[in-house]
Amino acid sequence: MAGRNHLFIPGPTNTPHEILSAMHVPMEDHRSPIFPKLLKPVLEDLKKIFRTETGQAFIFPATGTAGWEVAITNTLNPGDKVLIYRFGQFSHLWINMAERLGLDVEVHEIEWGKGIPLDHLEARLKEDNNHEIKAVLATHNETSTGVTSDISGVRKAMDASSHPALLFVDGVSSIASIEFRMEDWGIDAAISGSQKGFMLPAGLAVLAFSQKALKLTETATFPRCFLDLKDQMAQNALGYTPYTAATPMIYGLRKSIELLLDEGIDNVYARHYRLAEGVRKAITAWGLKLCAAPGFESDTVSAIVVPEGKDAKDVIGTAFNKYNISLGAGLTEVAGKVFRIGHIGDMNDVSLLGAIAGVEMAMLDNGFDIVPGSGVAAAIEYYRSTAK
Ligand SMILES: *Cc1c(COP(=O)(O)O)cnc(C)c1O
User: Per residue in 314-332, pLDDT tens?
Assistant: First the structure.
């Protein structure tokens, strides 16, 4: 098929040509005296993306999943109680990891489509007088349902109950695209990966830890080796890594940070909001609904519920086979019930109009009762009227 595949999944996201070019380098000596000139500024500038002044950033040659494990094993002890809400596939997988690692996991089930219930969290923490809960695990952007939780609200709930628990935030599909303020929100572990907002291939866990969390690496008793933060801290201080550096990925990350900071991180958030808003206008014009309840809509991914009697897998299949566009599938509980448009990373008005048009064609082909051109028309008007 001539023309390229159009990628609208919420990760891996499209890699800008500037990043691809920056990664296209010969291999080099990662123990040379000049290597620290690459690594040190990257780790320093990452703090501007996480928005922390007092925290410290890290990269591991791994993925976001490893980031969860770095946070847990470096700061907690086997048997520690942690609190987490399950409202989608990624919060589910984090729970699964916490259980398999031997934490005492207090899980609260939330309807898929909603996020962290702040009142419940505050009440539960107030009840925990003995401070048995050692950490709150919060999934900022639940990628499977397109739900964004209010992390500033989570911090307020923790402060209102004067609870000393650590706050871990999975920001894999929010950091570098949805407002994220590690310092202001008192986050102890912020977890991301290279293939979402950073617009790189998968292959790096991109993390930041508070000083409070880093202090705990001295006493945490979980066995760990490859994922030990102490080894990273010792080597990073010298500008090196404890094992072979993924050098091309670090060049790519340097370019990614440069692109994000050149645009301005607040402008990056605003762009994601505006592009997402156009997609939401299209969804409304089709007469369809988001999986996300009002107030929880994500600016990086929209999970769209198909009408009764329709299978979202058919839309995704037609879109891919006939129009060469890739959409996100519904996972586990919402399999067949939703399809997802990823609007994260290197996107602009016209890229999203391509997604909306492709989805519209695939829905019409599958007998959806929608007006041809209605979604595109709604998005066009929104984008035109809000373009600078
Ligand atoms: C993609 C994603 C992950 C998992 O990341 P991997 O890089 O696949 O390990 C975790 N959490 C969220 C919210 C995600 O979107």
Answer: 999 999 999 999 999 999 9
Ligand 1 centroid to Cα of residue 366, in Å, is 30
Helices and strands counted in the chain (H then E): 13, 14
The residue whose CA has the least distance to atom 5 of ligand 1 is 64
Q: Which domain holds residue 273?
A: 6-12+265-386
Average pLDDT over residues 45-51: 98
How large is the average pLDDT for residues 201-215? 98
Distance CA 28, CA 43 (A): 19
Residues 302 and 238 in one domain: no
Same domain for 171 and 294? no
Residue nearest to atom 2 of ligand 1 (CA): 172
User: Does residue 257 carry a pLDDT above 90?
Assistant: yes
Spacing, Cα 177 to ligand 1 middle (Å) = 14
- 255 and 123, same structural domain? yes
Q: Is the CB of 326 under 6 A from ligand 1?
A: no
Q: Where are the beta strands (DSSP E) in 253-353?
A: 289-290, 301-305, 325-329, 338-342
pTM to 2 decimal places: 0.98
Peptide bond into 12 cis (omega under 30): yes
Same domain, 143 and 88: yes
* Confidence label for 163 from pLDDT (cuts 50, 70 and 90): very high
Task: Evaluate: CB of 11 within 6 angstroms of ligand 1.
Answer: yes
Residue 320 in tokens: 């891919």
